[in-house]
Amino acid sequence: MTRARRTGRDMSQLLADFGHDLPTTTAPATAATPARLFRHTPQRGVRQPGRGWAPAAAPVTAYRMTSDQAPVFWPFIAGPGLPPTGAQIGVDVLSGSAFHVDPIGWVLRDDIPVTNANVMCLGKPGTGKSATTKAFCLRMTDFGYRILILGDPKDEYERLCHFFGVEPFVLGPGLRARINPLAFGPLGQGWEHLGAEQARSRAAIVFSRWLTLVRALVGSQRIGNRPVPFGPSEEAVVKTALQDLTGYSNGATTLTETTIPRLWHHLDQPTDTLIDHCRYASKQHFFDETRLLRDALGQLFSGALQGLFDDHTTIDVDWNAPIQSLSLSRLAPLGDDAVGIALVALNSWGRGMRETAAPGDLRIVVRDEMWKAMRLGVEAVKSLDEDLRLSRGVAGRGGDIQWFNAHKPSDMLTVGDEGSQAANIARDLIHLADIKILHGQKPGVADELDTILGLGAQATAVMTGWAMHRTGRALWLVGEQAYKVETRLHPTEETPHVDQRSPRKRPMTLRTIPDGSGAHRNRRGAPPSTPARHFIP
Predict the structure, then answer these.
(1) Is there a single domain that holds both residue 216 and residue 243?
(2) From CA 458, how far away is CA 448, in angstroms rounded?
(3) What CA–CA distance (Å, rounded) separates 377 from 414?
């Protein structure tokens, strides 16, 4: 059938016949239709030979999964969230990339929400806390860092010391090693060359550290369930006595180092000047008011810790060595309180040794079993609180990475009743570490951490599930950013090498092998990093 041919005039022709011309417009240019690369295909395929047509539709099943499970079916790729500086500690399982740790370098960067280099490592026993700590310490030595173990209650770092050819210092009853927690440290040098204002400023630092220590040691003693009080009056007595013993009150140009037994003796046989400066009416009045203070100080050098902290320091610490460790394993039979008191004394001594750090002097300060010190009372908690708040990390002044190990938050929160000053300070200690490593935990402990840190259900599930399935897995909190990290150890790091000719562990040799990852530089201005060291027996 043919279509009828159209005849007649259209509207424009009709108006033109009467002298009216319609305005003309340029016809829009029609864009060429691009060739289609993909065309819609019916559900059963194209019904043509060889085109895959099927008489029935393929069954489709819907699955729901999380983003870390989906890569099993589709290889999602996420970019690394942290720069590749510092020690390569393991693998970020979400991105599949290497995970590098550089606490001081993170502090100096604006794009990483970290304001201090303190590290808090929490985890159930056997989940890999010690392995992660030792791996980090060992690998950071490639970046110019040195290691200081302020108290090793279980000799866990002995093998690491032997690896570097360093013998740990062993403290214990009957042993020759002594530590004087009232040592001046570097601040005692060059006192005769200081001006009056500089001398007062340095003295304030030294006496403040000593008062914090004595307050913690006295507060560790108990009267029933109550700690021995150490109030403003006791503080004034101890400060005045320390100034007398060092010669500071007499304006001496060179101060004399004192010890805890000498402090006790000065209080047990007070001079008239001391009694007068402390505003007591008589010698008997002084004895009556300071009886508890003197008895508590006496227990520190005549009790279980006799021979440890009651004389001048007898060990010669090589601060240029890659590692130094103070072993406390011989104190284990004396109980947790004795170990805790020793840890508090060592913390004060170690802080004194690091009060003036040379430019570029980078050090990792490890404090293990910190809960034993915190259980001594609120004053011991305050001492640790000062260590965290005064951690070094300022460009040009060297830097300290304070690394604390503990099992669970309740270990720290048992220092006092709920809502007490001690419990609140202990709770805040966790927040003073911007870098937190949360290894595997039981659900109850994970809920505690969720309450304190506001982790959320997903992070809690990581600790109770994924992190419990293999040693070394942990949730790393770098500021507000979370990473699922699995620590990877070299076989030499996992199994100690024992010399068959000697029962003691022999030091292992190092060989530097390029790993092909390129050199990274520490953000603190340390010497250029060398390729990662692989450990060959």
Answers:
(1) yes
(2) 15
(3) 9
Q: What is the pLDDT of residues 307-331, one digit of tens each?
A: 888 889 998 888 889 999 999 999 8
Structure tokens at 6: 């159209």
Q: What angle do CA 497, 127, 159 make, to 5 degrees?
A: 25
Burial class for 204, CB neighbours closer than 10 Å (0-12, 13-18, 19+): exposed
d(CA 205, CA 201): 7
Residue 520 is assigned to a structural domain of this protein: no
Phi, psi of 388 (to 5 degrees): -70, -40
234 is a domain residue: yes
Query: Do 164 and 121 share a structural domain?
Result: yes
> If you search the block for the tokens 């989906």, which residue do you land on?
70
Residues 6+ apart with CB under 8 A from 31: none
Domain that holds residue 150: 87-177+315-494
The total number of structural domains in the chain stands at 2
Residues 201 and 166 in one domain: no
Q: Are 119 and 138 in contact (CB under 8 A)?
A: no
Mean pLDDT of the chain: 80
Average pLDDT over residues 481-493: 90
Question: How far is 483 from 466, CA to CA, in rounded Å?
Answer: 13
Claim to verify: residue 415 and residue 380 sit in the same structural domain: yes
Give yes or no: residues 391 and 421 share one domain. yes
Q: Are 140 and 86 in contact (CB under 8 A)?
A: yes
- Helix (H) or strand (E) segment spanning residue 481: strand 481-487
The amino acid sitting at 128 is: G
Same-domain status, 119 and 218: no
Q: Does 223 fall in a domain? A: yes
CATH number for the domain spanning 419: value is 3.40.50.300
Considering the domain architecture, whether residues 199 and 163 belong to the same structural domain is answered as no
Cα gap 480→482, rounded to integer Å: 7
Asked if residue 258 and residue 338 are part of one domain, the reply reads no
Boundary (domain end) residue, out of 271, 288, 305: 288
SS3 45: coil
pLDDT tens digits for range 12-69? 777 777 777 777 666 666 666 777 666 666 767 777 777 777 777 666 677 777 766 7
293 SS3 class: helix
Secondary-structure percent of the chain, ordered helix, strand, coil, rounded to 5: 35, 15, 50
Between CA 537 and CA 505 the distance in angstroms is 12
Nearest residue to 214 via CA among 233, 196, 234, 200: 234
Q: Tell me the CB-side half-sphere exposure of residue 61, using CA atoms within 13 A.
A: 1
Burial of 205 (0-12, 13-18, 19+ CB in 10 A): middle
* Arithmetic mean of pLDDT, 204-216: 90
Nearest Cα to Cα of residue 155 among 141, 167, 143? 167
Cα 487 to Cα 89, 98, 136, 472: the distances in Å are 6, 10, 10, 5
pTM, rounded to two decimals: 0.75
Within 8 A by CB and 6+ apart from 521, the residues are 85, 528, 529
Domain for residue 443, yes or no?
yes
